[in-house]
Amino acid sequence: MFSRFRDFVNRHKRKFVVTGVVVGGAWLALQYAQRKLREYTENEAKEFIERSRRQQHYKSTERTCDHTILSLSPAIHESIINTVNTEELAAELQTASSGKIAIWEKLKVKAFTRVAALVYANSMLVLLLRIQLNLIGGFLVRDTNGDSGLSTELQHIYLSLCHHLRDSGVVDLCNLIERHVQPILENVSLKKPMSLRDTEELFWSIQNSIESNVYDNPIKTIARYVFPPKEKVDTENLQDQEIQQLFSIMSETVDLLDSDEVASLTRSCVSQSFAAVVDKLAEQFAPVSSVEPIPGPSNEQIANSWATALNNGANKNNSFIHPSNVTIPLAKLIPIVSKLTKQYPNKKDLWIFQLVRNDLVKVFGANVYEAFGQKE
């Protein structure tokens, strides 16, 4: 029996070997495929978790950035008001018995300087904080263990550098802007009738003058106004290695602030803010009819009142005055412009909210976050 079995095996030896190789190879292939599928599934799960973690962290960084901008903006606003003080000139104008024309001339320059300074300072603040907070956020998200290599003290010192804009930066910016506003307005008579288009062109002239000088252009030299020199940075509580890290991050930030992309974004923010100023002033250029409509209890009565007012005005003047043809003497426009920059408790800032929501700035912040969030 055993001899017949042995003979059977010997006769089919090759078939057994081939079958064994095929079955073994298939088993090994199946094990390999299962292992690769398991690795692929695990990697996909890890990548999904990592993407979710980074996405949640980025959203948290964005919320922090928006909140920080809105928290610091009032301090910048107040600093500009204190630096370019129109209230003192207005009070002096009410009490002065002579020399009122000279006071009006100063007030004219100060009012437009304050608006322009607020426009540029807010734009700088938004871009600076987008860079700073997304840069720190990128460092923090690098390591899944939360070890970014940046100490809490270092992060605090780095983020506190933006206070330079609130202090000496605003003063330098206001002085620069006033030097450009002065020659533009000195030849504009206080009696000159100003239309909405004239006012818009005046702001355009101020913006063009400020940005015309290569060396003094605040858009090209933002770092000068928002960052203190290295020798003025308080590094007393940092170790030598942390000081080197801080200065390295500061250099990275300055490079970003001096880049063409940031200059283009800042110019876009400034133009957007000046457009918002003109839109706000447009409310003051509404044509005044001879009869004031009295709001009634219904929309129909209100419409009839307006129709009566317009018809009476048309009969009296033989034409309807388009808002673009309405003019206001510059002397009457100055208090209106000055009032735009006045701070009111619990009132939204005129420009800062639209800058916070600017999509181009948000995309730029996301790019900074992604760039510094890549593992080396």
User: What is the string of SSEs from the N terminus onward?
Assistant: HHHHHHEHHHHHEHHH
- pLDDT < 50 runs, ≥5 residues: 289-307, 313-318
Shape: elongated
Strand order in space, largest sheet? 1-2
Helix/sheet category: mainly alpha
Q: Report the sheet-strand fraction.
A: under 5%
Number of helices in the DSSP assignment: 14
Q: CA-to-CA gap between the ends?
A: 71 Å
- Taking all Cα atoms into account, the compactness measure Rg is 34 Å
Largest sheet: 2 strands, antiparallel
Helix content: over 70%
Averaged pLDDT, please? Answer: 81
Let me know the number of strands: 2
Overview of this structure, please?
The protein is an all-alpha fold and 376 residues long. 73% of the residues lie in helices and 1% in strands. The chain has 14 helices and 2 strands, in the order ααααααβαααααβααα. It has helices at 2-11, 13-83, 87-95, 100-141, 152-159, 163-185, 196-210, 222-226, 240-257, 260-282, 299-317, 330-340, 352-356, 359-372, and strands at 193-194, 328-329. Strands 1-2 form a two-stranded antiparallel ribbon. Helix 7 (196-210) runs antiparallel to helix 10. Involved in peroxisome biosynthesis and integrity. Assembles membrane vesicles before the matrix proteins are translocated. As a docking factor for PEX19, is necessary for the import of peroxisomal membrane proteins in the peroxisomes. Keywords: Peroxisome biogenesis. It comes from Frankliniella occidentalis. One of its GO terms (molecular function) is protein-macromolecule adaptor activity. Interacts with PEX19.
